[in-house]
UniProtKB/TrEMBL annotation:
Species of the source: Dicentrarchus labrax (European seabass)
Pfam family, one: P2X_receptor
InterPro entries associated with the record: P2X1_purnocptor, P2X_extracellular_dom_sf, P2X_purnocptor, P2X_receptor, P2X_RECEPTOR_CS
Originating gene: p2rx1
Quaternary structure note: Functional P2XRs are organized as homomeric and heteromeric trimers. Forms heterodimer with P2RX2. Forms heterodimer with P2RX4. Forms heterodimer with P2RX5.
Name of the protein: P2X purinoceptor
Catalysed reaction equations from the record: Ca(2+)(in) = Ca(2+)(out)
GO cellular component terms, A-Z: plasma membrane; postsynapse
Membrane topology note: Multi-pass membrane protein
GO molecular function: ATP binding; extracellularly ATP-gated monoatomic cation channel activity; purinergic nucleotide receptor activity
Length: 383
């Protein structure tokens, strides 16, 4: 028993096993083998290394976005002239990555709390029995008092009076001048894995350049100042259409960087996408077209609280940062090479199947490839 254990350990540590190889001179099998190996080699070089960059590690960025609108708008509604600046038409005003630029509005001035009739169509009535006191209607403006107003044939409500009438949207939009507003975007990204920080104000963009440039896909692709009309156009929308009822546009800042080269070549690319807003062009959600919201400015007059209500139609802009940085790394490189070497074994498996099961001389090849032993014969010899 001791000698058997010793022999087993000796065989394990001091012997090397290698598979038996048979050289088959067959043109068909040889061509199939080389074609498969060539295909695997093309896959490793073309797909894994060139297209998928299998020799590099990757990282996504931590980013921040700051935005600033500039421009002045002018309206003249029923003889009332007004100038609109940034504080009036941008919501919210903090310079976030998502904001709304007002392009059209419906204004209801001098509202105060009281009893007044609903709009026709909101809750029609023929008698007080049709107006249940203390109840609400989802599309109404307030709480019903239980009275039917004979002059309008609608229920009386406790609400901010006079109630808003938003059935007629101004056309053309009141703030068509918004087409000339400009948007300044400041974006900073950091790739933690590679300890690289970049800004869209890349080399060559200084105060003098910013004061004169305007983004153009061909002539000034790195300028961080955009004309609102150009943004709408590049997103595939018509400005007058989207300005009337509002809509949404996505500005994508794409940081795709190969850090094997100098970091100064890591620069942003801007893409513009129309999300919704033009019913005749892209928007399929016909039940709720455009983008709008309401806000009120409250004030006191003769010790009575009043408000001016604005239904705002605007262009919502969402600035989205997408990023991917790559850099050479020995670990994924060795992993990709090892996987490729393993895939080469497919050629051997396929060729063995052809040799052993498809060719006319398959029995001959089986005898050459496999060595058969007879256990009973070995037992007799040992005895």
């Amino acid at each position: 028993m001791k000698s058997q254990i010793t022999n087993a350990l000796s065989d394990f540590f001091f012997e090397y096993e290698t598979p038996r190889q048979v050289l088959v001179r067959n043109r068909r099998v040889g061509v199939v083998c080389r074609l498969i190996q060539l295909g695997v080699l093309a896959y490793i070089i073309g797909w894994v290394f060139i297209y998928e960059k299998g020799y590099q590690s990757s990282d996504t960025a931590v980013s921040s976005v700051f935005s600033k609108m500039k421009g002045v708008g002018y309206t003249n509604v029923t003889g009332t002239e007004r100038i609109w600046d940034v504080a009036d038409y941008v919501f919210p005003p903090q310079g976030d990555s998502s904001f709304v630029v007002m392009t059209n509005y419906i204004i209801t001035e001098g509202q105060k709390m009281g009893n007044c009739p609903e709009l026709p169509g909101k809750h029609n009535c023929s008698s007080d029995a049709d107006c249940e006191g203390g109840s609400f209607k989802r599309t109404g403006h307030g709480q019903m008092t239980g009275k039917c107003v004979n002059t309008t044939k609608t229920c009386e409500v406790l609400a901010w009076c006079p109630v808003e009438d938003d059935n007629n949207i101004p056309d053309p939009p009141l703030l068509m001048s918004a087409e000339n507003y400009t948007l300044f975007i400041k974006n900073s990204v950091t790739f933690p894995l590679f300890e690289v920080t970049r800004s869209n104000l890349v080399e060559g963009i200084d105060n003098n350049y910013i004061s004169k440039c305007l983004y153009d896909q061909e002539d000034s692709p790195l300028c961080p100042i955009f004309k609102l009309g150009d943004i709408v156009k590049m997103s595939g929308f018509n400005f007058e259409t989207i300005a009337k009822v509002g809509g949404a546009i996505g500005i994508v800042i794409d940081w795709t960087c190969n850090l094997d080269f100098n970091v100064k070549h890591c620069k942003p690319m801007y893409n513009f996408h129309g999300l919704y807003g033009n019913p005749d062009e892209k928007d399929k959600a016909r039940a709720s077209v455009g983008y709008n919201f309401r806000f009120a400015k409250h004030y006191m007059e003769d010790k009575v609280q009043q408000r001016t209500l604005l239904k705002v139609f605007g262009i919502r802009i969402d600035i989205i940062v997408q990023s991917l940085a790559r850099k050479f790394d020995i670990i994924p490189t060795l992993t990709a090479i090892g996987s490729g070497v393993g895939i080469f074994g497919v050629a051997t498996v396929v060729c063995d199947l052809v040799l052993l099961y498809l060719l006319p001389k398959r029995e001959f090849y089986k005898n050459m490839k496999f060595k058969y032993t007879d256990t009973q014969t070995q037992v007799k010899h040992s005895l």
